[in-house]
Amino acid sequence: MAYLSHVGYECAPINECILETTAGLFDLFTNKYVLKDNIRNSINDLLILSTAIDKKLPLFTKDNLLNRFAAEVHEAPIKMIGGNIQIDFSGHGPIEKKNNYESKGYINRGWSYSIKKGNI
C-alpha cells in the first residue's frame, strides 16, 4: 500500500452511487453475457468500471469483454495506449440509467434479484 501511495495512486472508497451503478451494470451484464467462473472477478470488474464512471476517471484495461460492455452502456472516448485500452469518463456525466436497470424503480432491486436467483 505504501508503494501505491508513493507512486501517486490513491484508494477510492466505494460509495452508495458506485454500488447502485454496479447493481445496474450487473443486471445489464448478466442479461447479455455469461459471468466468469469466479463471480467475484466479474463483480470486481464492474466495481472498477462503476468507480471510474463515478469519479470521472479514465479506465485502463486489457479486458476485451469489459471494454465492449463499457462502450455499450456508456458513450466515452476509447483509445489504445501502449497495448491497453483507455476509456475516458472524465468528460461525461453519470451513466444514464435505463428503465431495465431496476425493477419498477426500486433502489437496489438488482442486487436482491441476483441474490434470490443465487448469482451472489
What's the end-to-end separation, in Å? Answer: 29 Å
What strand line-up does the widest sheet have? 1-3-2
Strand content: 5-15%
The biggest beta sheet is recorded as: 3 strands, antiparallel
Number of domains: 1
| Helix fraction bin | 40-55%
Number of strands: 3
Radius of gyration: 15 Å
Any idea what the shape is?
globular
Mean pLDDT, to the nearest integer, reads: 77
SSE string: HHHEHEEH
The low-confidence parts are: 94-108
Q: Provide the structure class.
A: mainly alpha
Number of H/I helices:
5
Q: Could you give a short description of this structure?
A:
The protein is mainly alpha-helical. The protein has five helices and three strands, in the order H-H-H-E-H-E-E-H. The protein has helices spanning 2-6, 16-32, 39-55, 64-73, 109-117, and strands at 58-61, 78-81, 84-88.
